[in-house]
TrEMBL record:
<dbReference type="InterPro" id="IPR050706">
    <property type="entry name" value="Cyclic-di-GMP_PDE-like"/>
</dbReference>
<dbReference type="Pfam" id="PF00563">
    <property type="entry name" value="EAL"/>
</dbReference>
<dbReference type="GO" id="GO:0071111">
    <property type="term" value="F:cyclic-guanylate-specific phosphodiesterase activity"/>
</dbReference>
<protein>
    <submittedName>
        <fullName>EAL domain-containing protein</fullName>
    </submittedName>
</protein>
<dbReference type="InterPro" id="IPR001633">
    <property type="entry name" value="EAL_dom"/>
</dbReference>
<feature type="domain" description="EAL">
    <location>
        <begin position="87"/>
        <end position="329"/>
    </location>
</feature>
<dbReference type="InterPro" id="IPR035919">
    <property type="entry name" value="EAL_sf"/>
</dbReference>
């Protein structure tokens, strides 16, 4: 069974005409589009059309219509004013990035208390066809808006596994977005097959939950993590911070690794509130059998305080920035 969300097909738009005057123009619009070989379907006051057809639709004269009462949406997303549809069309570049796999990965070291490299986090980097760099925040926002998050997350996950295969005796932390996986049994089969094909020991790979603090469907996340664990992989929670919900997550999910959010790491050596939070989660990690990892370490004083407190793993610019190559390869 495949997942259609991972395929990059022509998007289907719904255009809603919200008053009688606009609806009366539908017949003429449909005739005009059909004459241009554009297929459309209509259900009540909603016109369904592909993205390529939308461009033709926008080329028609809208002068006689009340555009403030016309809205659109993709899939089951929220309705938006038609004036925002151009922004959606401008984000088509994300489709090309995914289809043509315009992605590479960088390695950032994770060290132990002695400063020795224990693992690498494998981070995705993207470029447009013209070579222009793309910020991760921009591409994930575009992918989310265009319903491409499933496909982008899969591309990142599969590419990271390939890069991880070059590491010897080092673990690889690979990010994934829980909301991009509708069913682990189907969505993650290709990941496990690839790791097996590359001859990797599953325990070498640590799948890291992105945006832990934003997870809403805990039952779904537990199902995904149970699948990973069953296949021999490990998992980590990232950006763990202050608050009841994240404490409950640690208790409920019992991750192999817990990453303390960098906002509580920066300046922790001199900030009593951050020290309190760092100690609180260190205690919870120890209690649940998780290995505590502090990310965002930039100063030697932060490193020394965290070591003394009991943290076991560390990540940050103090030890190395993301690089196209692993330091010890």
């Amino acid at each position: 069974m495949g997942c259609n969300s991972c395929l990059i097909e022509d998007l289907q738009y719904e255009i809603k005409m919200n008053n009688d005057h606009n609806q009366s123009a539908l017949l003429g619009i449909i005739k005009c589009l059909n004459s241009r070989k554009i297929e459309v379907t209509v259900k009540e006051n909603i016109l369904c059309i592909t993205e390529s057809g939308v461009k033709e639709l926008l080329g028609l004269s809208m002068d006689g219509l009340n555009q403030q009462l016309i809205s659109f949406r993709l899939h089951t997303q929220e309705w938006k004013p038609i004036s925002e549809i151009e922004k959606m069309l401008e984000m088509q570049w994300v489709d090309e990035v995914i289809k043509k796999k315009l992605i590479t990965c960088h390695f950032q070291p994770i060290v132990n208390v002695s400063g020795e490299i224990f693992a690498y986090e494998i981070l995705s980097r993207f470029v447009k066809e013209d070579g222009t760099l793309i910020y991760p925040s921009d591409i994930f926002l575009a992918a989310k808006n265009r319903g491409r998050l499933y496909a982008l997350d899969r591309l990142c996950r599969m590419t990271a596994v390939k890069y991880a295969s070059c590491l010897k005796n080092k673990k690889a932390f690979i990010n994934f977005i829980p909301t991009s996986i509708y069913s682990p049994e189907f969505c993650l089969q290709s990941t496990t097959r690839l790791a097996n094909h590359l001859g990797m020991d599953p325990s070498q790979i640590v799948f890291e939950v992105v945006e832990t603090e934003k997870v809403v469907d805990i039952a779904h996340l537990k199902k995904i993590l149970a699948f990973y664990k069953e296949k021999g992989f490990e998992y980590a929670l990232d950006d763990v911070g202050e608050g009841f919900s994240t404490i409950e997550l640690l208790e409920d999910l019992k991750p192999h690794y817990m990453k303390l959010d960098m906002q509580y790491v920066r300046g922790v050596d001199s900030d009593l509130k951050k020290q309190q939070i760092a100690k609180q989660f260190l205690h919870k990690a120890t209690e649940t059998g998780s290995i505590p990892l502090a990310e965002g370490v930039e100063e030697i004083e932060e490193f020394e305080w965290l070591k003394q407190a009991g943290y076991q793993l560390f990540q940050g610019y103090l030890f190395g920035k993301p690089s196209p190559h692993a330091m010890d390869e």
